[in-house]
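lol so apparently i was supposed to do this last week
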Amino acid sequence: MGYRAMQLACYCGQAPERILEVGFTSDRHMVVHFWCAACNRVLFISRSLDECGLACPPPDAEAQTQSAADDARFLQSLGIAVAE
Ligand SMILES: [Zn+2]
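anyway here it is w/ zinc ion bound
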């Protein structure tokens, strides 16, 4: 499974030293609440479900191949031929 860290930065360009809170809104947005120590500012970053999807790394090709092979073995065990 691939993993990509969410890039957080203040308006001043500094990455936050710590995240205060991660939450969700009633309109299905993820919100990250963090503190910028460089300029003493509290910041909120909001992401919609679609934006979260776009931020995800592409599916792991090796995992997909393995999964397809597992599926083929399972189907063959049921007597169903799988085209290669
Ligand atoms: Zn800042």
